[in-house]
Amino acid sequence: MSNSISLKTASHEYPIIIGNEILQKELTIALAEFDHESGYVIIDENVSRLHGEMISAILDEFFTQIYEFTVPQGEKSKSLSFWTDCVDFLLDNEIKRNSPVLVIGGGVTGDVGGFATASTLRGVPLIHIPTTLLAMVDSSIGGKTGINHHTGKNLIGSFYQPKRVIADLQFLQTLPDNEWINGLSEVLKYGAIRDESILSDTDVFLEGNFKEISIEHLSLLISKCVKVKTDIVQEDEFEGNVRAYLNFGHTFAHALEKLFGYDKMSHGEAVYLGMLAACKLSNLTGSAFDDQPIRKFSSLYNYRVSKNELDLEVLIENMKSDKKRIDQFIRFVLLNSWQHPTLKTVSDNSLIKQSWEEVSNQL
Ligand SMILES: NC(=O)c1ccc[n+]([C@@H]2O[C@H](COP(=O)([O-])OP(=O)(O)OC[C@H]3O[C@@H](n4cnc5c(N)ncnc54)[C@H](O)[C@@H]3O)[C@@H](O)[C@H]2O)c1
User: Nearest CA to 336 among 220, 252, 248?
Assistant: First the structure.
């Protein structure tokens, strides 16, 4: 059993398939249109270690020659120098315009591998095989690829849509607990901005036994998230307006990630804190609602930073350098109420500072 959700973009329409142990079947379909001489694989190092044998057994059936390139774990791989290494790997191994590249891993591998695929020969066919919850519900869908710059996160990149996304739930069996929690933040985001039922479906996470969640439940929950993301991307592929709603919590989050140097605070932790701060700022700017639907998950998060490390001046400066800035003011995704997001430019720094207190109280 698998679910297929289609995403129609300016360049083409492609499916996102969600199911358990679907890799072989879906690759058969995905690779049918390409020549089977050479296959290119850009893969996360942990996924390669944990699932490499299974993946090789499947790929050996398709390709005469497989070229594989491993992406070291961590945000540091989303760098200009590592992107160059990825492009070198593809070009040095004589990739052709119609050679497919399988990008297998979480959001880091997807973003840097996707950008290398987008930029090599002005674009070679990309197949995303997300292996984290976050990548399945978010980063593999919608075509954003890119790397970080020392002035900020995701500042270099392009919109480049994959040919297909294969979300095989079997990968999640080896996902560490903290990575489930990272993914949870983006799942909650979809519940907050669009689909209320996601917030109640997510209650199973409160028990903390992520690998015990049934395949059926997980498959439905991920499919609901993918549906929200594809609907929004279809409305606004290049982030002119409503696609920005997907950044709920992210203006605060990116400032945190920049302050803590990405490694001390994960993207998911930062997004969760950012959503609480965004709820607070929504309340402070006139929207009355209770943040309990997402606050109730706070005991699952274990931060590695303390409140005295929060430097408000630096955080606000970081927000101003984020690409969602409008002139000198910062534009936020806030909520009028649950599932009713809105874009607001906030000029009063004291309100923003009060919202940061929400983050400080969590640490
Ligand atoms: N492009 C987009 O639209 C978009 C959207 C959201 C987030 N992102 C980006 O995604 C990145 C975060 O992605 P992430 O949370 O997937 O992190 P990640 O790619 O760093 O993966 C997290 C960890 O899980 C490991 N891992 C991956 N799959 C595994 C598996 N099946 N079993 C065991 N371990 C596994 C990795 O080695 C890594 O240590 C950030 O850079 C963020 O900016 C991009």
Answer: 248
* Under 8 Å between Cβ of 103 and 77: no
Which tokens go with 333?
């995704």
* CB of 162 shorter than 6 A to ligand 1: no
Whether 174 is in the pocket of ligand 1, judged by its Cβ within 6 Å, is yes
- Is the CB of residue 46 below 6 angstroms from any atom belonging to ligand 1? yes
The domain that holds 277 is classified in CATH as 1.20.1090.10
Count structural domains, the chain.
Answer: 2
- Give the whole-angstrom CA distance, residue 186 versus residue 7: 19
Q: What is the pLDDT of residues 153-167, one digit of tens each?
A: 889 999 999 999 999
Nearest ligand 1 atom to the CA of 174 is 32
Last residue of a domain, one of 175, 198, 213: 175
Could you tell me where the beta strands, DSSP code E, fall in the chain? 2-8, 13-19, 38-44, 65-71, 101-105, 126-130, 144-149, 152-159, 164-168, 325-326, 329-337, 340-346
pLDDT tens digits along 204-262:
999 989 999 999 999 999 999 999 999 999 998 888 788 999 999 999 999 999 899 77
Last residue within a domain, chosen from 114, 146, 175? 175
At 323 the three-state DSSP class reads coil
78 counts as catalytic:
no
Pocket test for ligand 1, best of 126, 132, 149, 258 (most atoms within 8 A of CB): 132
pLDDT band of 84, cuts 50, 70, 90: very high
- Active-site residue, 186 included: yes
Q: Same structural domain for residues 140 and 219?
A: no
Name the residue range of residue 199's domain. Answer: 179-362
pTM, whole model, 2 decimals? 0.95
